[in-house]
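Input sequence (134 aa), recorded before submission:
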Amino acid sequence: MPTTKNTYLYGLGRRKSASARARLYKGKGNITINDKPALEYLSNNKNYLAEITDPLALAGKQTDFDITIRVAGGGLAGQVDAIKLAISKALTENAPELRPLLKKAGLLKRDPREKERKHYGLRSARKKEQFSKR
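Predicted structure, token format:
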């Protein structure tokens, strides 16, 4: 990785209707999400924070990068999965030798499940009116 001041690794992750863009700069391990500290953005949920740092922990690089994340759309759980994928992709951009490790852990696979649209004549995507025989 070149040593210019503004050089970063970039990764894009998506899940449900959430989309996250991660930039990894050389640093000390600070994580910012939408200009807020990560723990504050995640409503002090340490489980979500641990999930976000999974790719870094697996690669052993928790304190190597400062991470800036822009995330939009969806709810908190979808955003966390999108961020995790974005960080994983950014890590493999610089170090292709990490790819098999992250792939085996399932961190490079995008979860394709989306919300199904509402259909005509139904209450929601699949819910119907209660059937009355008589």
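Checked by second reader. Residues 34 and 87 are 15 Å apart (CA to CA).
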